[in-house]
Amino acid sequence: MNGQLAGAPIRATSPGLLGDTAARDYARKLRLFNAFAAPELSQAIASLELRDGMSLLDVGCGTGETLLRLRDAAGPGAEIIGIDLSAAHVQAARETVGDSITVLQADVMTVPLPPASLDLIWSANTLNHVRDPVAVLRQLTNLLRARGRIAIGQSALLPELYFAWDSRLERLACEAVRRYYEDRYDLGEHGLDSARNLLGWMQRAALRNLAVRTLVIERTAPLRQADREYLLEVIFKGTWGERLRPYLAPADFEALQRLCGPDNAEFALRRTDFHFIQTFTLVVGERS
């Protein structure tokens, strides 16, 4: 690092839209997603045509795997920094990247970097956690040099496919997840779905030359180990586990658990017809 992008960590404590604070830790989930979606994330980054010598920032860098992908894509001479609100994520990212990349604990509205110092800002699955994404984008735009770019990625903007053989149970499970999040975070349907308007956010932040691309994350049996671990731990156990019991009829909850439990004969990930689809949308805009 040449020192230009260095700064003291800023510790924010106010919760975000989904309850995020500096103390929140979902590093295991992030690592699993990064391994699961590695081919598509690498493809998205490759589409940015990064160059050696660029200055790059990952906003919401999580456990740091994307920082390494950005360095691999841009070259060893690129200046790369990551920020995250969570202290646990910052520690995990530092362990991932070592001393070669700077990782700071910071809030997205008070990034400790000088104006007009960056060529590109990358942020994936982060703006859906903030209360005013347009204000965040405007703030981040100030960090860009002229014609610098912001690349915002978001997974699962389109309906996902889990149980190709049981659309009813899939629909009920997704509706139960929505109701759970509404109750836990006091959010209505609009609040949970607002990330679908990534393009509108970028337009209102006065970014120009906008380009949108959606990649399909598609998996079929037999699954890679990384696919099995993500689907089992993050979706089947973490998202569709015991917390959904109050939101489903008893028979439907039990049917869901039979499909989600690896010790059950009906375990979905052992089916030869298992077919999973998720999307990752990338919107790229340029500062005027």
Write the layout of secondary structure elements.
Elements: H1 27-36, H2 38-46, E1 55-59, H3 65-74, E2 79-84, H4 87-97, E3 102-105, E4 118-124, H5 133-141, E5 144-155, H6 167-185, H7 189-193, H8 198-204, E6 208-220, H9 225-239, H10 250-260, E7 275-286
Parallel strand pairs: 1-2, 1-4, 2-3, 4-5
Antiparallel strand pairs: 5-7, 6-7
Helix pairs in contact: 1-9, 2-3
Give the C-level CATH assignment of the largest domain. Answer: Alpha Beta
| Largest beta-sheet characterization | 7 strands, mixed
- Strands across the major sheet, in which order? 3-2-1-4-5-7-6
Order of helices and strands: HHEHEHEEHEHHHEHHE
Low-confidence stretches: 1-13
CATH homologous superfamily classification of the largest domain: Vaccinia Virus protein VP39
Which fold name corresponds to the CATH topology of the largest domain? Rossmann fold
CATH architecture classification of the largest domain: 3-Layer(aba) Sandwich
> What fraction of the residues are assigned to beta strands by DSSP?
15-25%
What is the rounded distance between the termini?
Answer: 27 Å
Class by helix and strand content? alpha/beta
- β-strand number: 7
Give me the number of helical elements.
10
Structural domain count: 2
Task: Determine the fraction of residues in helical runs and give it as a percent range.
Answer: 25-40%
Shape: globular
What is the radius of gyration computed over CA atoms, rounded to a whole number of angstroms? 19 Å
On the 0 to 100 scale, the average pLDDT is: 92
